[in-house]
Amino acid sequence: MSPQITRDPRGRLAREPGPHVPATGRQVVIIEDDETLGRSAAACIERWGSTAHRLPRPDDDALRRQLSGPVDSVAIVSRDDMVALRYALLAEHLKPGVRLVVTIFDRTVAEEVSRTVPNCTALSMTDAILPSLLASCLAPEYAMLQPVGDDLVGVRREGVATRVEHLPRRALAAASDPCPRSPFGTWFRSLGTSAKALVCSLIALLLAYSVDVALGVLVLHEHWTEAVWNAARTLTTIGSSHAAEHGPGWYKVFSAASMIGVLVLAAVFTAGVVDRFTGHRMTSILGARSIPRRNHVIVVGLGQVGLRLSAWLRDLGVKVVAVERNRQAACLPLARSLDIPVVIGRGGDRFLLERLSVRRARALAAVASDGLENIAVAVATRAVAGDQRIVLRAGGDAVTTESQSLFRIGAVCDFPLIVSTFVAATVLDAELRSVFVAEGRTCALFADDRVLDLGSWDADA
Q1: 3-state SS, residue 439
Q2: Fold held by 5-126
């Protein structure tokens, strides 16, 4: 059934929205604190046959004046949840019942706002960009990948055409790995300084214990059970073998030196154990939070996008390690609770990239909020691992375009384009599941698995 065609107050043709069609002839107010996102969302709304009024960080009086006129919908575009929440509550107070669409990162806040204000739709910028990032990290032949229930919904690129596929949730967990199993040295390099000291002291203590047992059997002619017992007593500084008092001179000199060495090693080992238990470590030597060494994804930048991307990858059975330079980052406790290993450091550091086995990784995703920092990480990674798959969160600005022309950076996900398109479509009542870019075209996936080129929505199309 085709949408009903009417005319708006200005005499322009307008159509009622449907599942795959945005409303036209709407008066939309965009409250913004991000010029790029606001400008892009307004451009989409204008192209699709409605009118957008942009208000950059308006005060109460400016917003009251704007909402006193004819307004069909209000879109609040902000990277700050508290700013977005305040404007949403103010808009609802000034014009009760108006259609509200607000961008909020925090899920708890978003759910509470949607519950309290029924006419408000809370969108997550993170959820809008993640399907494109996930596909670029795991399978470049797909334009987007999105977990839906027990399935993984993907849109496969086929030239200018696209095809929707439903995959098992962990279908992409195991990838072909041409590299042999990582040796001990690779695992050891992935450890931090404290962990290396702990491992080295433990190995040295075990070696000293083994040598003491062997000398007890071969030199002092003890039964092996006595040798094991006496060596343990020596290692724990409780006592030594009585037979050692009658041993040769060289054995006594060697035993004295080994006891002094064991005393030092025991102190280092004890300090390492205490540090592991009392320190707030974001990685472990072994276990779920150990740094993976092959067939993993490195996520640089542990903001909301980096945390959710890491969590999605872990949920899909893909090994992941995150890099964050700020020790006070708000998402670090959440990453620890999710058993996501996090290394504190600068993502563009060559030595850090080598420690994280970037050459053996499936992909590296630079998803920090600073586009220039992401470009620096991408260039450093290309210098260390020339053939590595790199995914870059960028703003579609001139700097990214120029850098892309100079360096073979990798897959670039245009954050403002995808997020603003999703916001504009939602505020015009189109029911999208995801927005992605395929072959230079901005497309949308709907709940019924239909893929549509959003260029067909343009008023002059």
Answers
A1: coil
A2: Rossmann fold (3.40.50)
